[in-house]
Amino acid sequence: MTGRGIAVSGAAVALLIAGFCLRNGEWITMGTCGLLVVGSCFVLAPLNLQNLELKVQLPPRFFAGRSVHAEVELLNRRRFLDAWCIEISLRFPHEVRHTGHATWTTAGGRSVMKTRLRIPDRASFPEVACEWFSRFPMGLFEVRRTSVSNCPTVVYPRLITPAELQWDGFQPDLNALVGASTGDLFGEPRGIRPYQPGDKAARIHQFASARAMARGLGLQVRAFDPPGLHPDACRIVFHSHAKAGKIIRSDRFERALSLAAGTLAHFQNHQAKVSFHADFANWRHYPCESRVQYFDCLALLTQAKRARQTMAHELAEILNQAPPHQQLIIISDSPPEHWADLIPATQQRAILIDIRQVRFEQRQLNLQPVQRQ
Description:
With 373 residues, this protein is of the alpha/beta class. The chain folds into four domains: 3-47; 52-156, Sandwich (Immunoglobulin-like); 163-167 and 229-357; 189-224, no CATH class. Helices cover 25% and strands 30% of the residues. β7 (123-134) and β8 (143-156) form a beta hairpin. α1 (3-22) runs antiparallel to α2 and α4 (250-269) packs antiparallel against α5. It is elongated.
C-alpha cells in the first residue's frame, strides 16, 4: 500500500468511527464508500499485472562502450482486461539499468519500447532480469512482479588500438617475407604527373589537365606515394607476468584486454595472419585469419580471467618459440620494464605495448575567468 492508500484508508476508517460515535449517517456513508474504493483497488491492482510477458531483444554480440539498439516488448496475454500504467525496469551487468513506461496495452495486444543501450565493460549473460510494477488504479496499491527474459548476449571488450600501431612508418619492411598492400590502394598525395595508359578516370585532375591542354600537353593525373607495408604474419602474446612485490591492479587487466582486442581488429582490417597466445588460455594457439576466428578470439577475451601465477620461464619459452619472420607483439597488464629482459635476441624488433598509455581519469580543466573590457 502506498502513502496515498494509507491516507485514504485512514480517512475512511476515521469517518466511519466518528459517524458511529456521533450517529451521523453522512459520515458513515462516506466512510463506507471510502472502504469500498480501497477494497476494489486492492482487488484490481494485482489483476493489472496478471498474464503479462516481457521480451527483450538485443544484438547477440556487440562491443563494450558502444551504443546499440534495444527493444522491449510487453505482451498482454489476457482476453478481456487491458493493462494500464505499467512501469518497466531492466537490469543489465555492471549495474546498468533501463526503465520504461507502458501507458495502455490492450487485451491480446502488445506495447513496444525502443531505446539505446550501452554497457561499459565486457560481459556475457544468457538472460536479462526484468521487473515491472503498477499503481493502477488511483495509486493506492503498488504491485510488483519479476521475471527473466531469455536474451543470450556477448559484450566484447572495448576496442582500443595501441598507440604503438599508429606511429608513422609502422613496420616499413622488417624482412623479405613482409608483404605490401596491393590493388587499388594508394598512400599520401605526392603531386601531378602525365596520364599513362591504365590510369583510372577518377584520378584525372581536371584543372591541371585543362591548363596542360591549353599549352598543347595531355591529361594530368594525381600521383600518390606507394601504400604502407604490413606484415603477412604476426604473433600476439598476452601475459600477466610481473616482478615480485608489485601491486596487481584489476583495471589494468581490463585495459590490457581492450588493447588486445584493438590489436586483433587492427590486423584483421589489414587481412594479416595472426596467432594469439595468452597465459589465461594455457598458452594455447588461437589462429586469427578469418572473421570467424577473429570473433572466436574476441569471445575468448570476453571470458578471460587473469592468470594468477605466470612464471618468467614460461613467458621466455613462448617468446623463444616465435619464428624470426613473424612480427612479435607483446601485451601485458604490467609495465614493459617488468618483462622486457625476457625478450630473446632474435626478437629485438618486437613491439611492446605499454599498458600506461590509456587513462580513463577525468581531465582537469584549467579554466580562467575572462576579463571584459
